[in-house]
Batch of 4 targets.
Target 1
Amino acid sequence: MTYALYYYDSCPFCQMVLRTLPGLNVDVEKRNVQKNPAYRKQQQQATGRTTVPCLLITSEQGKEEWMFESADIMTYLQSL
């Protein structure tokens, strides 16, 4: 599994998730949607939403699952 977090710096909910990442034993790629508009476009095309934070979970077979809500994202990542 690979993980990518779509976020932007001034989002307080994104900051909550970002602060939990260093304490976890999981590698999460950070994708800032304000600094790289291609990330925002990718998220919008896949989900119809631009809401952040958003976690992209990609299985070994390439199946993508998108997760919204900071509390859900933190709970999921902490369970790994």
Target 2
Amino acid sequence: MVKDTTELHEKALELLEQRGVQLKDIAELVMFLQQPYINGLTLEFCLEHVEAVLKKREVQNTILTGIQLDILAETKQLMNPLLDIIVDDEGLYGIDEILALSIVNVYGSIGFTNYGYIDKIKPGILGKLNKHEGNQVHTFLDDIIGAIAAAAASRLAHTQPEKSRITQ
């Protein structure tokens, strides 16, 4: 049984690293989302917001659940047709996005637009994860990483209203 959030947090970070995701990769996505709106934004500042999002227990639970499902699919330990659906990352499946939305909800409605945008264009680490190179399955992980970035970008925007600007 998990006694405190420290153990859960450390396991979530360990799993992200094992799956090829560095916190800097997520911070770069936050930078991508918020740089047009916040003058003087730095990668270090984005990383602070990523780390804050990752401290949320519901985020940690989502990471563990999604990565476990990806690993079960990789090792063919799911029944069909679910196995094929997850391995193929079928567009109409949608449960991977639903799981990710539990993270997006943490910081308000701006997270939905950030998530939808970044999920559609898949910049940076999201594009790499979405390729499913080798035998790796990242059906859940790519959406979770996009959601963490969207939540961190939302958190950042909410804490920096004086630096925000509207561009057209």
Target 3
Amino acid sequence: MAAYLVLLLAVLSRILPYAFHQVNLGFTAVGGGLLYFGARRSRWQTVFAVLALMATDYYLTSFVFSYPFHAKDYLVTWGWEAAVCLMAHQVLSRKSSALRVGGAVAASSTSFFLLSNFAVWAGSAMYPHTAAGLGACYVAGIPFYANDLISTAFTAAALFGLPALARNIANTLHETGNNNLPMA
């Protein structure tokens, strides 16, 4: 159940800034939310995460930005979202150490940066289809990459780290004989 609440948080982190006219925040819980969802749910439930984010893309494109919606424009993003959930299931479902979570954060943010910027370069006329154009596209994406890396790290640290911290505190209190607090 918690994974679905986190998925809802990820969706809301994309929609609410526009509802409150705060679009320059650059924070989204999507990367960290997908890592948590993938780590806590079975592989086949990845479809629910991708469907929720597909609906979010449709809503934002059609109703917030008032652009025509073309599913083909989102195939790379949706494939990436599914891949992140599946990677998280493989890497984090059995053991979610700080090193594993950190590696998953770096892998998810970096892969999104590389794939999404390549797709923009290849599928639009914004940049010349040359090595210099590809380089310019990646350079233009660096601020977005930084925001994604920071927000994914923050979200993943909270989602994976706070429960681990609570367990460690509870175990320490139990081991020291101060068991006035109930164990979960």
Target 4
Amino acid sequence: MAQVNLALGTMYFGTRLDGRASWEVLDRFVDAGGTLIDTADCYSFWADPSGYGGQSERVIGEWLASRPGVRDRVSISTKVGAEPTTGADGWPANREGLSAPAIKAGIEGSLRRLGVEHVEICWAHMEDRSAPLEETVQAFAELVEAGTVGRLGASNHPIWRVERARNIAGAAGWAGYTALQLRTSYIRPRPDSPVPDQNHRFGWVSEEVLDYVDCHPEIDLWAYTALLNGFYVRDDRPLPEAYDHPGTARRLEALAEVAGELGVTRNQVVLAWLTGGSPAVTPIVGVSGVAQLDEALAGVALELPEELRRRLDQAG
């Protein structure tokens, strides 16, 4: 079975999506050849009455425990650094951060909730300039050295900080970041627009990010909010103000034309455009049921004809 270039986003597993529905999605994903499961220790503190995260990881852990053998078929991606320490009301000022003790405690909590001895990738969820960068880099490298983590990634970090961290790791002979996780989609925000509804100043995939990944083939690029929370296929989903500019209308027109010519949904064209581009992007897609998952799986399996990809690229 061909590998599926799609990460299953599990942000709302255990909160907005109950355990039974979450398990159905996980089962379908694995049965279809999916391997990448993305979560975080803070998911989803804002949606839970407790004000703390961990619900997503617990649901995944319970699912793994009930499915003997499935652990060997999946790659688990989790994040540390953004879990609140005193409840949701104080976030983001009270986030756990990226000090060595916080990283160690964060991954230990994740492993406990997931019921596993290691994860394939661990991300620095959001940057923490209060912690010395060398301390952060060394703490993550020690997780790899111990076999607790397979690879390291940086989410919502500016590229200059990623490059500096990778240089520190390289000079010391430590494992460094080999993946980036940021926000992108087919339509693009205005330059200098803040990331909607988030505290991630550097959360966008910029042209500089694409160039950096292009020049460093060892780095994978993962994209969250690739489908803009359903905007492409649902009239009731508003478009964030950051996308309010003339180029958006032209890109949406091209997207609708290509989807119509291929007889697929606009979501599927967006996913095919991301995964088949250069550099290729791994979209993280959260779904509320197996129907949405099947649509996403068909999208990443779709190969866009070169002429249609060129039309999409040149629009806007």
